[in-house]
Amino acid sequence: MTDTPVSSDGARHNPPRLSIIVPFFNEEDSIAPLYQAIVGAVERLGVSFEMLFVNDGSTDQTLPRAVAIAKVDPRVRIVNFRRNYGQTAAMAAGIDNARGGVLITMDGDLQNDPADIEHFLSWIDKGYDIVVGWRVNRQDKLLSRKIPSRIANWLIGKVTGVPIKDNGCSLKAFRAKLIKQIPLYSEMHRFIPAMASMAGPRLVEIEVRHHARQFGQSKYGLSRIYKVLLDLMVIKTVTSFASRPLLWFGFLSLPALLLAIVAFTYTAIRFVMGDGDVSLPIAGTGFMFAASAFICISSGMLGELVFKLGDVREFSFSSLTQRYADGRPVVGD
Fold this sequence. Notes:
Blueprint: E1 18-24, H1 31-42, E2 49-56, H2 62-72, E3 76-81, H3 87-97, E4 102-105, H4 117-125, E5 130-135, H5 142-160, E6 172-175, H6 176-179, H7 192-196, E7 203-208, H8 225-241, H9 245-273, H10 280-309, E8 321-325, E9 328-329
Parallel strand pairs: 1-2, 1-4, 2-3, 5-7
Antiparallel strand pairs: 3-8, 4-6, 5-6, 8-9
């Protein structure tokens, strides 16, 4: 699938400075007020901008209302998922399609305040690569949202070594060249600062406003905890192994290599002392351990090669999405 001009204002040839990415899932009552709030907050800054509204498989009127907005404002572009893939996939699709040099991500439920975008841009202008929002006065339920979030943020900081106070805040700003190189999947949007830490970016966390939900119901709950914990294990593995994969995979191969040596030694001794008698199960086990060690070392060598050549995002969301401009799909499936 190839890209084509998506609006009549020539934005493809003159990309905007700012791209605002907003995932929506069943937020039909929030999308119009949020659009108006973004326009009111950003237009006065005097910067060129676009808005990418990512419809994450909504089953209500979110998509039709987004298309209606795009018909009258060419700065609005829509990415539509045929079914619900989750917030991380929606953000990744928005990032893939964004054309701005600075990307802002935010929630579509009106809890983030577009008025804070000005502060994010000012910190980017100071030379920072990532600006993370911190909801100091968070307007959420204590037991189901605030307490689990505090525990998770503390744990994420300890495991990753990146002490962010509010990893779950979607309101963030990124330099496009950096964020477009970070692969996102599962619930990984929470761990963007930790994933990006391998590239040594300049990162700052700033206080932002947070409002109580006005419409609809929250899509988050305690059921996401196990996903966050699993992703945290993946992040720790990636950040630990990334810089020296051959060394770490070599360490992982040592137990299998030692067991293979023991098995082969026992087999050899029995062959010599037993007039050619060989224990096939033990010899076979030795070969299995030796093969495991070889696979680990080969994986480390492949990791070294990938690390030296640089990361390439292989997964494209273009096969899952349909893009709109001026209310019309501009790329077919």
